[in-house]
């Protein structure tokens, strides 16, 4: 078999000075994020992402069993205020020491 001398895209042999092939590739913006990745991108906890998902604050797409959040909705969420009034929170349970028997 004869060897082919064509350079394979991304290989080091065909780019001359030995530069990394990643240096020539433009970064690709992500379109969908998982819960953990979204929490990291927004600098909030995964639980806060879960709360926002439950309230419908993110646009989501289902891929198999995974629920992925769109990059557009993450940017929109990051650019808005998120004040939650006390009336929307679940009331605290009262501790009853003296129960009538």
Structural write-up:
The chain has 101 residues and is of the alpha+beta class. The chain has a domain at 29-78: Arc Repressor Mutant, subunit A, CATH 1.10.10. Helix content is 25%, strand content 11%. It contains 3 helices and 3 strands. It has helices spanning 35-42, 46-54, 71-78, and strands at 32-33, 60-63, 66-70. It has a 3-stranded antiparallel beta sheet with strand order 1-3-2. Strand 2 (60-63) and strand 3 form a beta hairpin. Helix 1 crosses helix 2. It is elongated and about 70 Å long. The chain starts with 31 loop residues before the first strand and ends in a 23-residue tail after the last helix. 8% of the residues are buried.
* Beta-strand residue fraction: 5-15%
Radius of gyration over C-alpha positions, nearest whole angstrom: 25 Å
Amino- and carboxy-terminal Cα gap: 93 Å
Mean pLDDT: 78
Q: Count of helical segments?
A: 3
CATH topology of the domain at 29-78: Arc Repressor Mutant, subunit A
CATH architecture of the domain at 29-78: Orthogonal Bundle
What is the strand arrangement across the widest sheet? 1-3-2
What is the name of the CATH class of the domain at 29-78?
Mainly Alpha
How would you describe this structure in keywords?
elongated; alpha+beta; 101 residues; Arc Repressor Mutant, subunit A
Which helices and strands, and how do they pair?
Elements: E1 32-33, H1 35-42, H2 46-54, E2 60-63, E3 66-70, H3 71-78
Antiparallel strand pairs: 1-3, 2-3
Helix pairs in contact: 1-2
């Amino acid at each position: 078999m004869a060897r082919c001398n064509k350079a394979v895209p991304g290989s080091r042999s065909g780019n001359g000075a030995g530069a990394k092939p990643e240096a020539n590739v433009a970064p690709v913006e992500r379109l969908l994020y998982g819960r953990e990745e979204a929490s990291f991108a927004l600098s909030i906890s995964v639980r806060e992402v879960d709360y926002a998902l439950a309230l419908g604050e993110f646009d989501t797409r289902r891929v198999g069993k995974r629920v992925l959040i769109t990059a557009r909705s993450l940017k929109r969420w990051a650019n808005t205020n998120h004040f939650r009034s006390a009336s929307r929170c679940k009331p605290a349970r009262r501790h009853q020491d003296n129960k009538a028997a």
